[in-house]
Amino acid sequence: MIFSKLLGFFSNDLAIDLGTANTLVYARGKGIVCNEPSVVVMRTDNKKLIAAGTEAKRMLGKTPSNIATIRPMKDGVIADFDAAGELLGYFIKKALNRSSFVSPRVIIGVPSSITLVEQRAVKEAAHNSGAREVYLIEEPMAAAVGVGLPVGEPYGNMIVDIGGGTTDVAVISMDGVVYSKVVRVGGDKMDENIMSYVKNKYNFMIGDRTAEQIKIEVGSAFEVEKTEKTIEVNGRDLVSGIPKTVTINEGEIRETLQEPVSIIMNAVKDSLENTPPELASDIVDNGIVLAGGGALLRGLDKLIRHETKLPVVVPEDPLTAVVNGVGKMLEDLDLLKRVAVS
């Protein structure tokens, strides 16, 4: 017991939001120390790591045939185990900065729909990357803690965590998830829809990074302003094969995003319909809290408010809600034990 406490004292414990699009790392006593894309670049012959994180994302679509750019996470879970291990190892080493001689305790946020097989894969990848102990926390619970909701009280709290690969809707009360619904739709699906639309409408090919830029700059879920924004996009003409530029407006992108936004909206409505009446009345008072990168889509809060007639709250920094919540559990081991995935 004393030895275990000494280990905890000397090690730099970490909290990780292992997301489909971005991975954030929180170090105890330091706060968020890493926030980079969940991308690795590896050689195809010997699986040797070339780059990870921000540097790897810059190489997307620009590598020769013997080098692969890999996103290890798909739909919120590990799709490539070797690449995920390399990614975790990169972030753990970078976060510790070689300053600890004891392996860290690591807490990882995972989707609430994660299977036992996927749980084992995440834990094994973390152990192989140097973790001493590994705990898993459901992302909506972590996000709720991160934005300061009273998760331990007998009140209904609804959180909608919109990540890159999944949207996790959960009703939380007394340190537990009363009802949750996960749909495998998030920021990545929105990007795919934008790429498909530009290809079909303009005979024009764009990449993932350009689609994401379009979504950030002119994407919206609900008409926010009368004057629509426009963006000039560079890509390749599919007919001539020559690079060119097209101008795309906000209304086009809003229509393109209607399908994934509708799926998210239906998940919210299903969760409200399946919430026990006593907790539902709390949600009427407390409202719905949005978290994750998807919460930044302009007009999404207004759309949910319009459709549900309930208050909708977007925290100051929804992107860091999960990692801040998991980080708080590094300091509160009692809470960690109550909410950890068994």
Please explain how this structure is put together.
This protein is an alpha+beta fold. It has 3 domains: 2-142 and 321-339, 2-Layer Sandwich (Nucleotidyltransferase, domain 5), CATH 3.30.420.40; 155-185 and 259-315, ATPase, nucleotide binding domain (Nucleotidyltransferase, domain 5, 2-Layer Sandwich); 188-258, Actin, Chain A, domain 4, CATH 3.90.640.10. It has helices at 2-10, 54-57, 81-96, 116-128, 139-146, 187-202, 208-218, 250-256, 258-273, 277-286, 300-308, 321-331, 333-339; strands at 14-18, 22-27, 31-37, 40-43, 49-52, 67-70, 73-74, 77-78, 105-110, 133-138, 157-162, 167-173, 176-183, 204-205, 230-237, 243-249, 288-291, 312-313. The longest helix is centred in the N-terminal third of the chain and has 16 residues, at 81-96.
Topology:
Elements: H1 2-10, E1 14-18, E2 22-27, E3 31-37, E4 40-43, E5 49-52, H2 54-57, E6 67-70, E7 73-74, E8 77-78, H3 81-96, E9 105-110, H4 116-128, E10 133-138, H5 139-146, E11 157-162, E12 167-173, E13 176-183, H6 187-202, E14 204-205, H7 208-218, E15 230-237, E16 243-249, H8 250-256, H9 258-273, H10 277-286, E17 288-291, H11 300-308, E18 312-313, H12 321-331, H13 333-339
Parallel strand pairs: 1-9, 9-10, 11-17, 17-18
Antiparallel strand pairs: 1-2, 2-3, 4-5, 4-6, 7-8, 11-12, 12-13, 14-15, 15-16
What would you say about this model in short?
By secondary structure, the chain is of the alpha+beta class.
CATH arch. level architecture of the largest domain: 2-Layer Sandwich
Number of strands: 18
By CATH reckoning, the class of the largest domain would read Alpha Beta
The DSSP helix count reads: 13
Percentage beta strand: 25-35%
- Strand order in the sheet with the most strands: 3-2-1-9-10
Let me know the largest β-sheet. Answer: 5 strands, mixed
Q: Which percent bin holds the helix content?
A: 40-55%
Give the distance, in angstroms, between the N- and C-terminal Cα atoms: 22 Å
Instruction: Tell me, briefly, the overall form.
Output: flat
- Summed up, the domain count is 3
